[in-house]
Write a structure and sequence with these properties.
Elements: H1 3-24, H2 30-35, H3 42-69, H4 73-98, H5 105-110, H6 113-145, H7 154-169, H8 174-202, H9 207-212, H10 214-217, H11 234-250, H12 253-259, H13 265-300, E1 306-307, E2 310-311, H14 316-323, H15 328-361, H16 369-397, H17 402-413, H18 415-426, H19 436-452, H20 454-457, H21 467-481
Antiparallel strand pairs: 1-2
Helix pairs in contact: 1-7, 1-8, 1-15, 3-6, 3-8, 3-13, 3-15, 4-11, 4-13, 6-7, 6-15, 6-16, 6-17, 7-16, 8-13, 8-15, 12-15, 14-15, 15-16, 17-21, 18-21, 19-21
Length: 485
């Protein structure tokens, strides 16, 4: 597929998003930008959150992970559902009861201003890194398949990507995103399902014969019970997935901001529970696509792309879609799916970071009313620039599979949030608020040390996703140590 065709498709797609932004962003005020006026239908939010939860990382990196991890990721996904139930019945009632704009305001109510700022800081770091990971992946694909042919620098590709997001979110904010994410989730799911059937047809398979084939069985192992030291061991994956969902959704302003636009607690709960159930089915489809991609590559001799000397399984899907001799149709649906998946998470991240910085750090609600909109707009621009800088840094540092890197970083940055909220909810003890940030930093350092030397300390044991739980537990214990007598 020629680069000019891909670029034209992207331009048409963004014109559609900008049109939705025009319709939803007529009220250029902070109540609309931060809360969508608390009028979002729960089922619209839930459907749109599928795309935000999966993102471009899932769209490309999960299928690319199948070769090394098989279907072990499903163990994590089943854990997600348990985590979403905890979010629905523990966290959401708290947020609605306190009527918060940012969920980290809970920490101010429970412990004090230092805890509030600590929670904000760890979210901010987590979401900047997470959003940058996701956008880095998309920008890399655009660079590899479009802009390299025109000798456009990677930095320019990144700036254009962020600029497009800024254009359609700068007025309507979360109200615009609730509706654009619905459209983008549809395109993403359509692209995956269409790609599966196109490749099945090329391999002369049906869905039934695929699941019965010996080639598919090479990749489809889900359960790993044998080796407790392995990072893929079931209990590690399930409970790690459970707490990843709690931390990366329930304790994440990006994801919760959409929930907080629902009319009431009950609708927000329905939103989260339905999301958890649907994600099981959707992630299985993504892993099935991954198995098909490797089966197709093996049959037709398509090599996994190599970038800067490293094999990039993340790029196998785009390689096959755009250069795998499957016709222009699959190229079109892939680009639509990629852009939809990537920007459905990146746009909400930009809005959530803007919201959290304004509410938690700048205390915008106590600023003069006539200055609040201007403060929000300047913050929106500044965070856009920050994302550009971080993505460019990733270009020179990141070597691993992107989803593996994303979840590993989350274990360090979300752990203190998990510990803080758990201590606040499950104890009635107050703490010496001014020392909370020290406990959070020490917990990250200790977790990093344990992860780095786990095989030596624990006789060959390797941490998986349960590292997040360890980090949260260390934070919890630290808070108990600094409790008020």
């Amino acid at each position: 597929m020629k680069p000019i065709y891909i670029l034209s498709l992207i331009a048409i797609y963004f014109c559609l998003l900008i049109f939705i932004a025009y319709l939803t962003g007529k009220n250029d005020n902070n109540e609309t930008f931060f809360k969508a006026n608390k009028k979002s239908p729960w089922y619209v939010v839930a459907f749109g959150m599928i795309g935000a939860s999966l993102s471009g990382v899932t769209f490309i990196s999960v299928p690319g992970w199948v070769q090394s991890a098989q279907f072990s990721y499903m163990q994590v996904v089943f854990g997600y559902l348990a985590g979403y139930l905890a979010i629905a019945y523990v966290l959401i009632p708290i947020y609605y009861h306190l009527k918060v704009t940012s969920i980290y305001e809970y920490l101010k109510h429970r412990f004090g201003p230092t805890s509030h700022k600590t929670g904000f800081a760890f979210f901010f770091i987590s979401r900047v890194l997470g959003a940058s990971f996701r956008l880095f992946l998309v920008a890399s694909v655009l660079q590899y398949f479009i802009f390299d042919a025109w000798n456009v620098p990677f930095e320019v590709t990144v700036i254009l990507s962020i600029l497009l997001i800024w254009i359609y979110t700068f007025k309507g904010g979360i109200k615009t995103i609730v509706w654009t994410d619905t459209l983008q989730t549809f395109f993403m799911l359509f692209a995956v399902i269409a790609t599966i059937f196109i490749i099945l047809n090329k391999l002369d398979l049906t869905v039934t014969t695929l699941f019965a084939s010996e080639e598919f069985k090479i990749y489809n192992k889900i359960w790993f019970f044998n080796d407790a030291n392995s990072s893929k061991y079931f209990l590690k994956s399930f409970f790690g997935g459970m707490f990843i969902a709690i931390a990366m959704t329930g304790l994440d302003q990006d994801m919760m901001q959409k929930n907080l636009t629902c009319k009431n607690t009950k609708e927000a709960q329905w939103n989260v529970i339905s999301l958890g159930a649907v994600l099981i089915f959707v992630n299985f489809i993504f892993l099935t696509l991954g198995a098909l991609l490797f089966m197709y590559a093996n049959k037709f001799g398509i090599a996994t792309p190599i970038v800067d000397g490293a094999v990039k399984t993340d790029l196998l899907f785009p390689e096959i879609a755009l250069n795998g001799h499957l016709g222009i149709t699959i190229g079109i649906v892939f680009i639509l799916g990629l852009i939809a998946a990537a920007y459905s998470s990146a746009d909400s991240a930009l809005t959530a970071l803007t919201t959290s910085y304004c509410v938690d750090f700048l205390d915008i609600e106590n600023k003069p009313l006539e200055k609040q909109t201007a403060i929000r707009k300047r913050t929106h621009i500044a965070i856009s620039i920050l994302l550009v800088v971080v993505i460019v840094i990733f270009k020179h540092l990141l070597q691993d599979n992107v989803i593996s890197s994303l979840l590993q970083v989350a274990s360090f940055t979300y752990g203190p949030l998990l510990g803080l909220f758990a201590f606040g909810i499950f104890t009635k003890t107050s703490v010496k608020d001014k020392f909370v940030w020290i406990i959070a930093v020490v917990a990250v350092i200790l977790t990093y040390f344990l992860n780095s030397f786990s095989t030596q300390i624990f006789n060959g044991y390797q941490f998986g996703y349960e590292l997040l739980i360890v980090n949260g537990f260390i934070t919890f214990i630290g808070l108990y140590i600094i409790k008020n007598k």
